[in-house]
Specification:
Chain B: This is Carbamoyl phosphate synthase small chain. The complex is a heterodimer. By secondary structure, chain A is of the alpha/beta class. Chain A has 34 helices and 38 strands. In chain A, helix 16 (441-459) packs antiparallel against helix 17 (464-472) and helix 26 (676-683) runs antiparallel to helix 27. Chain B is of the alpha/beta class. Chain B has 2 domains: 2-132, Glucose Oxidase, domain 1 (3-Layer(bba) Sandwich); 146-345, Class I glutamine amidotransferase (GATase) domain (Rossmann fold, 3-Layer(aba) Sandwich), CATH 3.40.50.880. Chain B is built from 9 helices and 19 strands. In chain B, the strands form 3 sheets. Chain B has a 10-stranded mixed β-sheet, with helices on both faces. Chain B has a 7-stranded mixed barrel with strand order 1-2-8-6-4-3-9. A two-stranded parallel sheet of chain B has the order 5-7. Chain B is globular, with a radius of gyration of 20 Å. Chain B starts with a strand and ends in a 9-residue tail after the last helix. The mean pLDDT of chain B is 95. At the A-B interface, strand 11, helix 9 and helix 16 of A face helix 3, strand 15 and strand 16 of B.
Chain lengths: 1006, 354
């Protein structure tokens, strides 16, 4: 067995690579430890659970590059490398390490699938060769390295053609070329996106059924199919952007087995050891199928398959990589059968993507071969109608009014599902919709059933059977009330009097064939309850944060999971509710019981009633959880933490400012405006620029800085009525800082201040940040003092985040978040303090906790947090930093000094001092001499072009930034960021620095 | 209309009755955990007389077609499911599952909590059950000797080839025939009760088919069968496997609730490989009973360790409890047909590999 294993994580969350790799990575690390291995983890995503103290033995938040990982290998001398759990990032890195001879030099064995197999699976040309050998059909295609080769191919097979760059994730740089005019741009972007400058152009098979198989294989050659999945959206929409059902619904057994056998033959030929995803396309009118691609690693789909079936793919893949065979590993859900079987489902699964278009109103909503969703939700029920409805209820978003539904069908957009519902509502036939979309009639019929039920609820009296059927179809009481013209209370009472109650069933991998001690639960109205309330003196229900989206990422899953662990340590029985299949919180091994459900009042209430929950925890599931607090409290549900009137007093700007005034705590001046008219009037009392912020949003959605009357008018026009009141704040120049603290009403534990690099006005989630801060101790004292005053005034208990603006030596309060924030994992890990644990212990009134006498930690290392933008997926968006958050994830590097940490942050960029053509600086700056002498257009075409600096607001600036992003150039839209980059260049060497608090603390390396 | 599923000496479940469910129908209740393949299950003669519960809740999605039936007609006596799709969608579909069942007068119950039914079968064992619209049901003595009901009447020959196989019919599935025809065999299907005329067919090898019920229903033909087995290379599938065991002196026993589905892992003792298999059986060969016989264990079930296949120490005889012909289920064991043909063609070979 291996003694010491290096695990590579997937890095910051970007579109195409999200929290699913935290789930798989965490499972993998824990499985390694279970087998007695020492685990060294490199992952520069600080928000993850896998980078927490108690998952790996040592954690390096270091760049995921050959250079940096080689240094870690040199230092740690591991004997094996596990790269199959860290997505495309880790897989590519493993291939590079092999190519550069690092694996050989340090005698490092790559666990699981070999580099040769990875290349055969990932390199389009090698893969195509293998498919030909196996007689597995692939769409007519050609590997090209120039635009003219692509044109020749298109001339031969006809348009449209698909462009798929090699070795990229989430279809990055790819797309559908509909005609010759689109060819040049798409193909050259694709070539640039591919690290090996290679694109496969492919004949389009749009309209085919898209089917995926998740396969496991061990070194003995045993192959199993954990799950197959069918895309609601036919081929043409990236599978990450498709609604997906599991198991497949419209495949006969012959179809199913034909594709399964094809997948097995491919996975066996590739000699995969571990997990592998195989995507296939099937003609809806014949048995003709094509192999689309394989991913010889765990993936987003494998996370989904794990949650859909209860079969923990990443854990099994790790054990298989260590040399176990599947028939040697127990199935953890049954405890007495083995991993060498195929799960049988007795429910249906619907996965629904979560897109960022609510934050990017200017984005093009069309979907194609390039993934654009940031996250996803999953729903379980015993009817598809129910599962579809639950999935939509889990999205935690409002569907915009659709004006021209057919437009969303002609070229698919994120709103296609809702446009189809609209059309059906207006009497359109499923046949016509099928003709336009090629979506299987079976799925359209499901949607039609939902609409028919809407109609019945609106017209028929609420009979026993009607309510029963509506509940089977997933309608919430509130929806039934709305449609039938009753109040929600009336519907609830009627339903309860008819004894129609939500029942709970379990996911057991085997459709009840074997007895299973499973704690993985879903609700349904299709049958009887089969679980008992959990035992336990004290029971906690922890609300999760739902799908990953901009502004609410994996960091909230971290909080929820840490809260569960803390509660368990305190002897509580823990119950999790969440609906994000990518996360650790929805791993059934995390809480004592998992309810995989929409986070909706009705459902939370039914769980609370059933389990007799003592307290619901709303502070650890982001805005999603805290937004539900008031509704839950109104139903008399016991909440842990402060009453919602305190939350309201903190979040209602008027009340909050009034309180600060009585406390003598300075704040920026602001006015709450309930109507557009009020806003115009209020604006007159301020000097522009003004910060305009809507209410009830995540990540500063819709928040803008307006510089004049016209911009204000535009901003108000764009604001939805739901987002009133709007707060107009005087916009002050200054430095933004924030703190995460734990309070017990009187005392405050505040480890350190986080200092933002970019000036105020840039959303905190989008700015680079230093931790610990460089503030003077008098400044820190002031921040601490104000924090204490706020806490004691509101008698606040639990965890809280406060944002401040520092201007002319004064400290102004900007806002308060009465919940765990985005920065909690960073503070917890770098300062090595268990913030969430402390907060939980406050909330459950742990008598042994003494916040008052807790020492402020000494932080030995400097951390720099930086935002990561998925600009490659949103190339039409100007990523100019501002109050509306745009980053999808964050990274962090740790070092002895800030400069050294910055060096790591910017290590992917070339040194502008060494190559005059690296930078194009489009603003007046003292560093202008570093800028290229080429014209902007010329510069964009050269390979050296890496860095574009422009912080202007003009249309021209916007246009150029977008062009730069399209060409794969890094854009700095704030001078401060650029200056930080220049500052980093002073450092030559990067030394790996482990996070504090690792298991070997105090032990000398070597 | 409401209908009921009564488990003998057990629970009652309510659901929506199909039009053809009037007086009621009785049969042994079994559950199938595969998520596809309902048409194959309904037409598989091994299910003769049984009431089948589908654990996957959405059945009938891709309708019924003209290709996937394992025999000419529906073999089961009744069906229990959660949902029976009214509007199926598949290019081969010619009718909906409901129409198909109604057309052959097979009663079915929908909107049943099939998971609860499955758990009842699991915990209390396979038993007689009844589907009826009445509020009570008095159970009859169950029918036995199902194999006599499903075997054909006369020998029939299919295909042309140099190698002749006699397929002994205990209730054969079409897919076994097709697996042999695909391998260029000339196949004569012979009802097991006409085993005496096998020499007339002059076969090069025999395949013993699947079939319903208790293998001991065939007890009267065992001496005759042993003579045939001593003479010809033989491959037994499911019931065929069980009767081979009985013929050579081993014993069979009933499982508490059988194996039915498409996900049963089987380990090959000879190669050490594990593969997934399609299964449908209530009875198994008792492992201890092999002692002193000329049969050896070749395959076993990874989950419960039960015997899944045998090989003869000195003769060209092999058998499997699962279904290498698939339909429904995985084709991972299809290679057994090739192995058998190779074995049968080898002069002086034997099945036993040490």
């Amino acid at each position: 067995m291996y003694r010491k294993v290096l695990v590579i994580g997937s890095g910051p969350i970007i579109i195409g690579q999200a929290a699913e790799f935290d789930y798989s990575g965490t499972q993998g690390c824990l499985a390694l430890k279970e087998e007695g291995c020492e685990v060294v983890l490199v992952n520069n995503n600080p928000a993850t659970i896998m980078t927490d103290h108690d998952v790996a033995d040592v954690v390096y938040c270091e760049p995921l590059t050959v250079e940096s990982v080689t240094k870690i290998i040199e230092l740690e001398k591991p004997d094996a490398l596990l790269a199959g759990l860290g997505g495309q990032t880790a897989l590519n890195l493993a291939v590079e390490l092999e190519k550069e001879g690092v694996l050989e030099k340090y005698d490092l064995e790559l666990l699981g699938t070999s580099v040769h197999s990875i290349q055969q699976g990932e390199d389009r040309e090698l893969f195509r060769g293998l498919m030909n050998e196996l007689s597995q059909p692939v769409p007519e295609s050609e590997v090209i390295t120039t635009v003219s080769q692509a044109k020749a191919f298109a001339d031969e097979v006809g348009y449209p053609i698909i462009s798929r760059p090699a070795y990229t994730l989430g279809g990055r740089g790819g797309g559908i070329v509909h005609s010759e005019d689109e060819l040049e741009e798409l193909i050259s972007t694709g070539l640039k996106a591919s690290p090996i400058h290679q694109v496969i152009v492919e004949k389009s098979i749009a309209g085919f059924k898209e089917i995926e198989y998740e396969i496991m294989r061990d070194h003995n050659g045993t192959c199993i199919s954990v799950c197959n999945m069918e895309n609601f959206d036919p081929v043409g929409v990236h599978t990450g952007d498709s609604i997906v059902v599991a198991p497949s619904q419209t495949l006969s057994d012959v179809d199913y087995q034909m594709l399964r056998s094809a997948a097995f033959s491919i996975v066996s030929a590739l000699n995969v050891i571990g997990g592998c995803n195989v995507q296939l396309a099937l003609d809806p009118e014949s048995r003709q199928y094509y192999v689309i691609e394989v991913n010889p690693r765990v993936s987003r789909s494998s996370a989904l398959a794990s949650k859909a079936t209860g079969y923990p793919i990443a854990k099994m893949a790790t054990k298989v990589a260590l040399g176990y065979t599947l028939d040697q590993i127990e199935n953890p859900l049954t405890g007495h059968t083995y991993a060498s079987f195929e799960p049988a489902l007795d429910y249906a699964i619907v996965k629904f993507p979560r897109w960022p278009f609510d934050k990017f109103s200017e984005a093009d909503r069309k979907l194609g071969t390039k993934m654009r969703a940031t996250g996803e939700v999953m729903a379980i029920d015993r009817t598809l109608e129910g599962a579809f409805q639950k999935a939509v209820q889990s999205l935690d978003t409002t569907i915009p009014v659709i004006t021209d539904p057919w437009e969303h069908l002609k070229k698919p957009t994120d709103l296609r599902y809702f446009a189809i519902l609209d059309l059906l509502r207006n009497g359109e036939t499923v046949e016509n919709i099928h003709k336009q979309t090629k979506i299987d009639l079976f799925f359209l019929q499901i949607m039609k059933n939902i609409i028919a039920m809407e109609g019945r609820l609106a017209t028929e009296p609420l009979s026993d059977s009607l309510i029963q059927q509506a509940k089977v179809y997933g309608f919430l009481d509130a929806q039934i009330a709305n449609l039938s013209g009753n109040s929600e209370k009336e519907v609830v009472e009627k339903r309860k009097s008819l004894n129609i109650n939500r029942q709970f069933k379990v996911v057991d991998t085997c459709a009840a064939e074997f007895e299973a001690a499973t704690n993985y639960v879903y609700s349904t109205f299709t049958g009887r309850n089969e679980i008992e309330a959990l035992e336990g003196k004290k029971k906690a229900l922890i609300l999760g944060s739902g799908p990953i989206r901009i502004g609410q990422g994996v960091e909230f899953d971290y909080s929820a999971v840490k809260a569960i662990q803390s509660l368990q340590q305190q002897g509580w029985t823990t119950i999790m509710i969440n609906n994000n299949p990518e996360t650790v919180s929805t791993d059934y091994e995390t809480a004592d019981r998992l309810y995989f459900e929409p986070i909706q009042k009705e459902i939370v209430q039914s769980i609370v009633d059933f389990e007799k929950v003592d307290a619901v925890f709303t502070q650890f599931g982001g805005q999603t959880a805290i937004n539900l607090a008031a509704e839950l409290e109104a139903e008399g549900i016991p909440l842990a933490g402060v009453p919602t009137e305190v939350l309201d007093a903190l979040e209602d700007r008027d009340k909050f400012y009034a309180a600060l005034k009585t406390l003598g705590v300075p704040h920026v001046s602001g006015t709450t405006c309930h109507t557009k008219k009020e806003a115009w009037e209020a604006a007159e009392t301020y000097a522009f620029p003004i910060l305009c912020r809507p209410s009830y949003v995540i990540g500063g959605q819709g928040m803008v800085i307006v510089h004049n009357q016209q911009e204000l008018t535009d901003a108000l026009e764009e604001t939805d009525d739901r987002h009133f009141p709007i707060v107009l704040d005087a916009f002050m120049q200054g430095t933004e800082v924030e703190v995460d603290l734990v309070a017990d009403g009187d005392h405050v534990f505040l480890p350190e201040v986080i200092e933002h690099l970019e000036p105020g006005g840039v959303h905190s989630g989008d700015s680079m940040a230093l931790f610990p801060s460089t503030l003077s101790s008098s400044m820190k004292d002031k921040i601490s003092e104000y924090s204490k005053e706020i806490v004691s005034h509101f008698d606040y208990k639990g965890i809280m985040n406060i944002q401040f603006l520092l201007s002319d030596e004064e400290v102004y309060v900007l806002e308060v978040n009465p919940r765990a924030s985005r920065t909690v994992p960073i503070v917890s890990k770098v300062a090595n303090v268990p913030l969430i644990d402390l907060a939980v212990r406050v909330l459950i009134e742990d008598a042994e906790l003494d916040l008052k006498n807790m020492e402020v930690p000494v932080i030995p290392k400097k951390a720099v947090k930086y935002p990561v933008f998925s600009s490659y997926a949103m190339t039409e968006i100007d990523h100019k930093l501002g109050p509306n958050m745009k980053s999808t994830g964050e990274g962090m590097c740790v070092a002895e000094t800030v400069e050294k940490a910055l060096r790591k942050v910017f290590s992917h960029l070339p040194n502008a001092h060494q190559n005059a053509d690296t930078c194009f600086i489009d603003v007046e700056s003292s560093s202008k001499k570093l800028s290229t002498h080429l014209s902007f257009e010329e510069w964009l075409t050269i390979d050296e072009a890496s860095l574009y600096v422009n912080d202007q607001q003009s249309e021209e600036a916007r246009h150029r930034r977008i062009l730069a992003v399209k060409n794969g150039v890094t854009v700095f839209s704030e001078l401060k960021t650029f200056e930080a980059y220049l500052q980093s260049l002073a450092c030559e060497e990067m030394e790996p620095t482990p996070l504090p608090g690792n298991k070997r603390e105090g032990v000398q390396l070597g | 209309m409401n209908g009921y599923l009564y488990l003998q000496n057990g629970k009652t479940f309510e659901g929506k009755a199909s039009d053809s469910m009037m007086e009621g129908v009785q049969g042994e209740i079994v559950f199938f955990t595969g998520m596809t393949g309902y048409q194959e299950v309904l037409t598989d003669p091994s299910y003769k007389g049984q009431i089948v519960v589908f654990t996957y809740p959405l059945i009938g999605n891709y309708g019924i077609n003209n290709e996937d039936g394992e025999s000419q007609e529906i073999q089961v006596s009744g069906v229990v499911m959660y949902q029976c799709a009214e509007a199926p969608s598949h290019f081969q579909s010619t009718q909906s599952l409901g129409e198909y069942l109604d057309g052959q007068g097979i009663p079915y119950l929908t909107e049943v909590d099939t998971r609860e039914v499955t758990k009842a079968i699991r915990s209390e064992g396979t038993r007689q059950a009844a589907l009826t619209v009445h509020s009570s049901y008095s159970f009859q003595e169950p029918g036995t000797k199902q194999i006599y009901k499903v075997q054909g009447e006369t020998a029939q020959t299919y295909g042309k080839g140099d190698f002749r196989v006699a397929l002994i019919d205990f209730g054969w599935k079409k897919s076994i025939l097709e697996a042999l025809l695909e391998r260029n065999m000339e196949v004569s299907v012979l009802p097991f009760s006409k085993l005496g005329s096998i020499d007339d067919l002059n076969p090069d090898a025999v395949v013993l088919s699947n079939g319903p019920g208790n293998p001991k229903d065939a007890v009267t033909i065992l001496p005759q069968l042993k003579e045939v087995l001593d003479k010809y290379p033989a491959f037994g599938i499911c019931m065929g496997h069980q009767v081979i065991a009985l013929a050579y002196g081993a014993d069979t026993t009933k499982l508490p609730f059988g194996h039915r589905g498409a996900n049963h892992p089987v380990k090959d003792v000879v190669t050490g490989k594990v593969f997934l298999s399609s299964q449908n059986h209530n009875y198994v060969v008792k492992e201890g009973s092999l002692e002193g016989t000329s049969l050896q264990k070749r395959f076993y079930n990874v989950n419960d360790g039960s015997i899944e296949g045998l090989m003869h120490e000195s003769k060209m005889i092999m058998s499997c409890q699962f279904h290498p012909e698939a339909h429904p289920g995985p084709k991972d064991a299809e290679w057994l047909f090739d192995d058998f043909i190779q074995l049968a063609k080898s002069k002086g070979g034997k099945a036993y590999v040490s």
